[in-house]
Amino acid sequence: MSNDIPLIYTSKGNLPEADLRMEVEWFVADEYVKVVKRHYLGDELVKEGADVLSFKGAIGETLIGIVK
Q: What is the DSSP-derived secondary structure letter of residue 63?
């Protein structure tokens, strides 16, 4: 059986993506870039996640040369 409705796992269980409001916030610093994604069901925060790209270390130093 195929389910064509995209779901997102939240603190309330799997919810249809269309029922949620997503807010994205970016933080840019010299050492990193961070994006925080928050999903709300009405006014209630039901999921939050963050991705961080660090410019420190061997890989980060290479990326700094590319990004500049």
A: H
3-state secondary structure of 47: strand
Q: What share of the chain is helix, strand, coil (3-state, %, to 5)?
A: 20, 55, 25
Q: How many helices (H) and strands (E) does the chain have?
A: 1, 5
Q: Over the Cα atoms of the chain, what is R_g?
A: 17
Diameter of the chain by CA atoms? 49
pLDDT digits (tens, 9 = 90+) for 13-41: 999 999 999 999 999 999 889 999 999 99
- Dihedral pair phi/psi, residue 58, rounded to 5°: -60, -45
What pLDDT is attached to residue 58?
A: 55
Q: What is the mean pLDDT of the chain?
A: 85
